[in-house]
């Protein structure tokens, strides 16, 4: 039986060293990313006018709003799915602008280092609708969805800023659900909130608010149709999210979220995660700043070509571990 004890001891030592190594790696990587929020690739983030062949200076989130709403669409190798989603989006925005002359908009497409014809498709829409209504940010290389959205948010002009996926999984008309709820809460804040103190000069963009589109109402149906291992992985991920960011939002990963300009300014100048788990960091930061979060059910459909796969789960868990270590140790400072 002596050999069993030796094997057990060796296993315990190996597990201990592995845990220590993982902990060191998490702390080291969290420390390395402590200034990620301050790294704005201003040299890469440019608007190019394909009609005049001139570069247009990028606005900044700290500037006053010039449009009513900005729609930020991150795109990585979306040559096939982007045209349909953009056609639907532009048709909706144009129809709404024709009915309401005070309605102004812009669509900001962030090309996250695509290797296909995404760049060409995006600029075709700029040519068609002019650079005042459609703009393209070129990041030069692939940083991740979170960074693409952050760049779009930091260089948008809207009072309201909506992030939505390039596949059109959520109908663009559902933005009105989020928009209406933000207006309701903002009016209450302006009239009765402590921060507003009844100041009638405040605009909706001045009130920090976030509205999260949610697919939680579709969960029961999804559980019945997905493979058991996918359900197991997603349930486990939700538990980790709960432990990391706390309760409050049932569906953190829906790519349909709206922010007032004041909220976007606080959140996207602090966010550090560049890929899938930036949504969870947004929830954490909303809670830290005391930004009200409204979760609203939206229509959603599965679109072929999803870039999320089972291998994405370990990457998500890694990012959550970095976020937890970064904020809990104080390495990730939050700018107010």
Automatic annotation (TrEMBL):
Reaction equations catalysed: a di-trans,poly-cis-dolichyl phosphate + UDP-alpha-D-glucose = a di-trans,poly-cis-dolichyl beta-D-glucosyl phosphate + UDP
Keywords: Endoplasmic reticulum, Glycosyltransferase, Membrane, Signal-anchor, Transferase, Transmembrane, Transmembrane helix
Mode of membrane association: Single-pass membrane protein
Pathway connected to this protein: Protein modification; protein glycosylation
EC number: 2.4.1.117
Superkingdom: Eukaryota
Keyword Endoplasmic reticulum: yes
Membrane-spanning segments: 6-28
Subcellular location: Endoplasmic reticulum membrane
GO cellular component terms given for this protein: endoplasmic reticulum membrane
Pfam family membership, one: Glycos_transf_2
One of the record's GO molecular function terms: dolichyl-phosphate beta-glucosyltransferase activity
Glycosyltransferase 2-like domain: residues covered: 70-180
InterPro entries: DPG_synthase (IPR035518), Glyco_trans_2-like (IPR001173), Nucleotide-diphossugar_trans (IPR029044)
Entries under PANTHER family matching the protein: DOLICHYL-PHOSPHATE BETA-GLUCOSYLTRANSFERASE, GLYCOSYL TRANSFERASE
Family statement drawn from the similarity comment of this UniProt entry: Belongs to the glycosyltransferase 2 family.
Name of the protein described by the UniProt record: dolichyl-phosphate beta-glucosyltransferase
Species: Vitis vinifera
């Amino acid at each position: 039986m002596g050999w069993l004890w030796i094997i057990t001891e060796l296993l315990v030592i190996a597990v201990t060293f592995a845990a220590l190594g993982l902990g060191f790696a998490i702390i080291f990587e969290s420390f390395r990313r402590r200034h990620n929020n301050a790294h704005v690739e201003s040299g890469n983030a440019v608007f190019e006018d394909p009609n005049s062949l001139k570069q247009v200076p990028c606005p900044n989130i700290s500037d006053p709003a010039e449009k009513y709403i900005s729609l930020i669409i991150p795109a990585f190798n979306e040559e096939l799915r982007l045209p349909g989603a953009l056609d639907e989006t532009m048709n909706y925005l144009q129809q709404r602008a024709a009915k309401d002359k005070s309605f102004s908009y812009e669509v900001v497409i962030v090309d996250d280092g695509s290797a296909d014809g995404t760049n060409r498709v995006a600029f075709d829409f700029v040519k068609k609708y002019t650079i005042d209504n459609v703009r393209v940010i070129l990041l030069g290389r692939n940083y991740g969805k979170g960074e693409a959205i952050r760049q779009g948010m930091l260089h948008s002009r809207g009072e309201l800023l909506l992030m939505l996926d390039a596949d059109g999984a959520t109908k663009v008309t559902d933005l009105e659900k989020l928009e209406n709820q933000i207006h309701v809460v903002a009016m209450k804040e302006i009239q009765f909130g402590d921060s507003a103190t009844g100041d009638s000069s405040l605009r909706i963009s001045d009130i920090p608010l976030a509205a999260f589109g949610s697919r939680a109402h579709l969960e029961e149906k999804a559980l019945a149709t997905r493979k058991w291992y996918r359900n197991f992985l997603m349930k486990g991920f939700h538990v980790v999210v709960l432990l990391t960011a706390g309760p409050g939002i049932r569906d953190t990963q829906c790519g349909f979220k709206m922010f007032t300009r004041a909220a976007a300014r606080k959140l996207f100048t602090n966010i550090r995660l560049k890929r899938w788990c930036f949504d969870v960091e947004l929830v954490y930061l909303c809670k830290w700043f005391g930004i009200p979060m409204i979760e609203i059910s939206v229509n959603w459909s599965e679109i072929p070509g999803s870039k999320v796969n089972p291998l994405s789960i370990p990457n998500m868990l890694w990012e959550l571990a970095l976020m937890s270590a970064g904020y809990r140790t104080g390495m990730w400072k939050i700018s107010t």
